[in-house]
What does this fold into?
Amino acid sequence: MKRWLVLLLCLLPLLISAQLIDLNTATLSELKKLPITEQQAKDIYSYREYISFFDSIYDLKKITSINQKTLNDLKPLVVVSLFRETDDVTQRREEIMSMMDRYDSNEGASEGMADVWMDYLMTPQNVNKMHFDDIISLPNTSAIDAAAILYRRARGDTIADTRDLRNSAGLSYYGYSNIRSFVYYKEPPVRNRLYIDLQIQYYTRYLEEGAYDMMKEAIIRNTGSGSTGVIAPHTRKYSYYGYFQLDEINPDVMLKARMRYSNMFKSGWMYYSSKGETPVNFAQLMSGTGIVDLEEGDKIWKDSKVYIGYENSDLPYVNNSSLKVYLGNYRATYGEGLVMENTDFYSARKTGYGFGKRIMGITPDLSRTQEYALRGAAAEYRSPWFSASLFLSHDKKDAMVYMERDSVETSPGVYQYLKSTHPQRDANGKYDVFSYVTPSIRFDNDELSAAETFYNTELPLGDPYNVPFMNLAPRTDILDEKLWGTHLQVNPFIGTKLGFTTYTALYDNANFIAPSGDALKQLIIRDSYDYTKFKYNDSEIGALYDTKTSKYERDFRRVMGFDGMTVVGNTSLQGEYAELTVDGKDATIGDDPNAMIVSAYTQFENLYLLTLYRNIDLDFDNPYSNAFGEHARFDDTILDKNIYTLTNPLLSDLWQTSSQAQPEKGVYFETRYRFSGYYTIGRSYLDIWERMSDHRRSARFQSELEFRPIFQLGLRARYKNQINRTDDFADRAVSKTNEYTMSARTFLSARDYLEFEYRYNTVWGPPYTSLTNPAEPGSEGIGNNQAAAMVLMKGDYIGVNFTHHFNESLYMQGSFIYWYGHGISHWDWEDMEIDFMGNKGCKSWIALHSQISQNMYLTLKYRNKSYQDVEMYIRKYNEPFPATQDNYFKSVEHSENTIRLQLDYRF
Amino acid sequence: MPLNKLRKPIFILFAMLLIVINLCAWSVSDYYLGNTSPVFSARNMGMGNTGVYDSFSPMAVFINPANLSMLDGKVGLTVNGLFTRNEDNRSIPLYNSFDAFLDDATYSNNINLYDDYGFAGYGKIKFNNYVAGLGIHYLPMINFKGDYNEEIRNNRNSDDDGYPEIIALNEINNAGNINALGFTLSSGMKFDNDKEAQIGITINTLDGQSEIQKSIRWTEWAIQQSIEQVSSHRNVLPDSVYTNKSDLKGSQIKIGTAIKLNHRFGIGIAYSPKSKFDRDSDIRIVYGPDTTMAIPSTSTNLLPVITNTTIKDKYILPSRFRVGFNYQPRNIMRTYFNAEVEYTTWTDVSNLFEDSWDLHVGVEHAVNNRIPLRLGFQAITEWQAMPNYSLLTTDGLPTIDATKIITPSISAGSSVLLRKNLVLDIGLSFSWREYQALDMFRDGFYDDRIHTGMTSYILWPNSHIMPTDRGWENPDKVRESFTQISTGLTWSW
It folds into this structure.
């Protein structure tokens, strides 16, 4: 009996509480039974369903209709249980939210790597099983950090938790703080399940400055000296910009869907339509009978990227080995990116460390890369001692091709040229290709052909040019490329690896032909009058790879190379050597154009030092390389500086969108040193290099000092200096750039911040080698009789940046910038992209990031940029055609409104 | 000038302006339907004009009639005002001394303000799990308002920062609306607390007028030049005034359904088939010298030619199909999220057009103290049809070119509870678009030699200027922005 009484007493509270209503689980009808009004019951229910679960009964006071008295009345009748809707996945997502935001907003720069990193943030890898390449592929993680972890594991130690990881000898705090979010120790933080990521992006953008100039470049007949009396037509359509009506708002649209079962089975699809392209007509796709329109369906396939893959980081039967197999689009990256790193996007000074990180090996690819996308199959096997990968791709590539004029036989043996052209083929039916090209805008081939015919109608009408038609033109998907490649690697010691990489691209339907010297000049420059614009450094264009020369004829391009890395104490040494097979032998080193990068990275707790040497031969034309360089290939060549002289302005795209580094040799030093709690020398570097084409020597130095007297305030001073120097009889040029930046940041509560920035720069340009007009107003007609002195250009820039978090679900970023530059361009790292700003203007943007629910995210960004272009010349009043002199005209104002909508669903 | 010589310009002007009949809401651009009126609701405007599943705004019934039976209360009324600022910049291509296209220079800038008002009311009755509602609305659906002024100046003194003489003034003054008087019937059924389905139908009676006036008037200075320099001391410069008054009558049906799937998700679907209704137009063209102008007694004046035409034709509204969802997640800010797409069969109007999908996204967060912050985005596709005089048909008529224009918008909004059951909503929207268009007043008309019959100019002191028509080879670049504020007062009981 006594036992029953004890049991009853124990159960009594339970029985009493059983009669209480749990605010976190009660149904609406249960809430209505409480002594409150129906509206109050509904309000409680709504609060719980649409705002938050109750943490305590006092949360009821947050409901407007519940006053203190009602709360007092309810107290004895209700209970609040600890109840959360969140599961392990949601909890994990909340933990890594800010990092996800950061990688997501850097997606534009990292081009696809963000997807990989975000996957590993969500479903981390086991730090006790990761390989060397797995660890060094994580952002901001050095080889020394990776080696420290592997050394510890090699001792038979198992890393048990985050604190344990921190205690790894040799692992820097910086490395630790970056690694910890990407790894787990004993049990993964989330269970194996299906993950879905969906994304819609709608982005109205304007062309970048260079592409804008290229598209606006006029294609006109030669007016000659005027003696012919020919008047060139004032026709907007004689530019790609006018012909294709690029004024119109034509958004970039991206649809992306990724699905994966943990880190094992992965699949993804992305459709991307960029400004100026003819997008898929979704209305037509599904219109009418309900049958999918095949033409539109085919376009979707061509404009899409897709993959399916399998990854297993713990293969059965083989100890500590992993396997990856991918079908569809994938990326392959090895070493220093000299042999293979397939991306369309160039970023300067990509060291492979810190922010210039590479993800080694095979990874799925849904980036915006289209030209150098690999589509096919790839497999990768990794073990602690050995790894191998094989990749195959078959895809059609865009190329700059030679055009041939159509003709008709007017009488036997007499042919007359027509205005239309077609891609030139040799006797075997192979296209003659000048180069790969990543078009700024992928115009439709038929539309391009029509535009060229239109231009070809006009061009021969004036004084005949040397090249009176569009002899080179881009064509999409014209180059049939089959590519195979492999990477073999041995890891003899911890932190040491030696690798061999090679790929061969087979061209069944094309010859690559790029003449040099005078032949090149005559090919790409329309008017012989402009041949003088062709400079020594344009030999870079002549160094494009040929498959057909007087020495050999083949249908492939082959690159092979060795890479290696070793960690000695707190220093890692790494490098890659690559050779492009031209007229040497595959097995012989040094007989072909080659490239080399070696670097040493020393790491201390508050300091790192990086030294990097690169030497890239002029002839090393490997489109799949994405190595360290100060400039992109063809920078400062005629493709960059004198677009108007080209036979087709779109040739400039070889430079505009180049993903290869410019052939350079030089040494680069970089450091960051936090030498006291208050002072940090931020990322600082010195680069001294020589351009291979013309041996121009340059130096660039940048350093910044941050002073943080209190945690909430950071004061920064940055100085940048660049000197480009050419001492050459033909082309003497020196330019010196100095840039001074001061900024003050306040770090407020809740990750809010406010920053003011001021920048001042000066550029000393080379003296003109020609005479010019006197400076006095009204003396334009006097003639060119004044020598021009060295030109000093100055620029100012002032900006305000801010971030404000309204709460954990809503935050706002924004910026306002005003700049004035006399011929100087400023740049701004804006949200997802770098924006270049010429002459003078102002820009403001605001972005709102809203977390709609645990799974859904919305970003809405609006930007306005108003600026004046360089001052323009138009014909003077009362001046007959053709003009004999120029006259200043008011600058033309540009106003851009840009919007970006991004909607993400992550399940 | 002999009348037979006037035939051609009259015909061209007539043909050109005939196309103009179908314009335009706020904008003067010549394209069918112009800017479709935004939803006449400040709340919906703030949320990117979403509302195919909407249980708050009586005006959202105009988007989907099925929304009616979901509205709060038994009776409700709303009055909304819409204030629009339209800025229209037209630019002409610039060429450098190498005759290369450089950029565009703005030659006209017009800023106009317009206001419009709409009203909606409803009543609902509940029978157990069934709801039936009746609604009424009256609002402008298509808006013909548009104003444009342009000065034609010669180029004397233009290189000394001087202002050259004004030769002629071009104007467009459009007015009128097509108003929709609509009755909505809606019925809903509740399956349980979290599941409901409603259907609805709206019948809109469309009734409206449009008055479109487009004119070229020579200035007194120009007329004086004519009188002084033409040998017979006559004013031979013909003003051109085109007026089109139209009555439009018709109807439109819209059907829709709104389904609440659970306490978080609701989907809405609405469809309005193509409507074809009557338009009676009286067109008056006055072409000739201005007889009201005081001229010296020694001068003579020609009489203007006046043409009156009546046209009866059909006015077509394309069918529209909209589908979207409403999502109410658990969020520390009370949140409503709408995403919708609308399919418009522009091919109903013309086979030159292509059908399009439009995107609307909106969110409402109760940021603080129950004050909502609304954000929205939309991208609307419309079509512009313009006559191309450089490509004539076998009948000598201009061919018609179609251009697609995408108008993206961003919007924001909020609301204030003024009294119990009385809410003031405010919405703000900014839209812009950029496109190419043919010159609305063709430059060849200002070549005074075609009017005077003389071999030299009387209005253009610089003989190197040759006013000639610009076609698609040198179109205008048009940049337009729309800033709209919508305010609404909603009472429900």
Notes: The CA atoms of residues 58 and 71 of chain A lie 8 Å apart.
